[in-house]
Design brief:
The chain is mainly alpha-helical and about 190 residues long. The chain has one domain (about 25-185). It is about 35% helix and about 5% strand. The N and C termini lie far apart (about 45 Å). The mean pLDDT is about 75.
Amino acid sequence: MRDDYGFQFIPGIIPGYHEPDSKEAEHQHFLKPFVDELVVGYERGVSFYGSHATHGSDQHIPYSRVHKFALGPVVMDFKAARPFGGLSDIGSRLYCIYCKVWHLFYHLRTDFDAWVSNDDNWLRKGAQKWRSAQSDGERQSILELYGTRYSELWRLSYFQATKQIVVDPMHTWYLIILQRFFRGKKALGLD
């Protein structure tokens, strides 16, 4: 089902030579039409004229069923997932969205049993404060405290960034690790 094009929806393609600036949340207007549909589909639901099973039958009643739908996991590479989820940049001190491991103090810590999970309500609160901030300085201080910016995805009442944003490991594996391995002279024994 995941590879069937009938179950995929691409709301738009970002035009231009440069990606939108994540610091100003410029990419959010690309998500807005898609999230508008998701809000209606989850809160109110949609009715269709019919389906393949009811079409042409004697008991067909158009628009008789209400269907609700929601956003599942958002699968992107690490660099794309952060701005679309309204999270801080990949180079920030808040580099993990799933836990509260941050800054150089926690860098290379392997005692994962002591890591504290991040709270989605905390992230949502920070996103709302970032959106209502009046100045760039105020937005920057909110970003440093909460680690989040506003995203259109926060309009979804059920959205949980720590559970629904899934980083695709294959991008990292194929595009970074294997390229560096095969381009390096030592890896191929050419030194």
